[in-house]
Amino acid sequence: MAESPLRRVLSDFARLEGVRGIAVVSKDGFVIDAVVPAGGIDVEALAAMVMTVYGASERLGEEMKVGKNELITGEYEHGIILIYDIGDAVISVVAEKTAILGRIRYELKRQAPRIKAAL
Questions:
Q1: The pTM is what?
Q2: Backbone angles phi, psi at 57, to 5 degrees
Q3: In angstroms, what CA-CA distances link 16 with 30, 48, 58, 103?
Q4: Buried b (16+ CB within 10 A) or exposed e, 23-52
Q5: For FRET with 24, which of 8, 32, 54, 98 sits at 20 to 30 Å CA-CA?
Q6: How distant, in Å, are the alpha carbons of 9, 24, 40, 64, 118 from that of 54?
Q7: CA dihedral of residues 52, 30, 114, 99 (deg, nearest 10)
Q8: 105 with 36: CB under 8 angstroms?
């Protein structure tokens, strides 16, 4: 069976240095597709938590009158999580702490139209 266009883009993205996984999550919290190492990330749990964070961030943006979410970045002791809004879904990237954040942000913005088109 041939690889879907969405899976192809996600697989390419997952090859970036320091990326541990990437998932496309619907705004209702379901995984549309993901590329993660076997046994590495529970994508169902990631999807639920990503949308919880996304909702809280939306409310914060409204309350502070700074607008809608574009890119949420969480930097943690052992890694980085990015959540990028693409309309009806979000892209979530889990990366190593040592990953080059600017490169991942650049690729997210560059690949978002391809991912959105593949949905």
A1: 0.92
A2: -65, -35
A3: 24, 24, 28, 9
A4: bbbeeeeebbbbbbeeeebebeebbeebbe
A5: 98
A6: 23, 13, 22, 15, 22
A7: 50
A8: no
For residue 38, pLDDT over 80 is answered with: no
Residues 6+ apart with CB under 8 A from 96: 18, 19, 20, 79, 80
At the fourth CATH level, the homologous superfamily of domain 5-118 is Dynein light chain 2a, cytoplasmic (3.30.450.30)
Per residue in 58-107, pLDDT (tens digit) is 999 999 999 999 999 999 999 999 999 999 999 999 999 999 999 999 99
Question: Can you read off the two tokens belonging to residue 14?
Answer: 């997952």
Q: Which residues lie closer than 8 Å to 87 by C-beta, 6 or more apart?
A: 116
Pair type for strands 71-76 and 79-85: antiparallel
Residue 53 in this model has a pLDDT that exceeds 80: yes
For CA atoms 102, 81, 8, 5, the dihedral sign is negative
State both tokens at 45. Answer: 């749990």
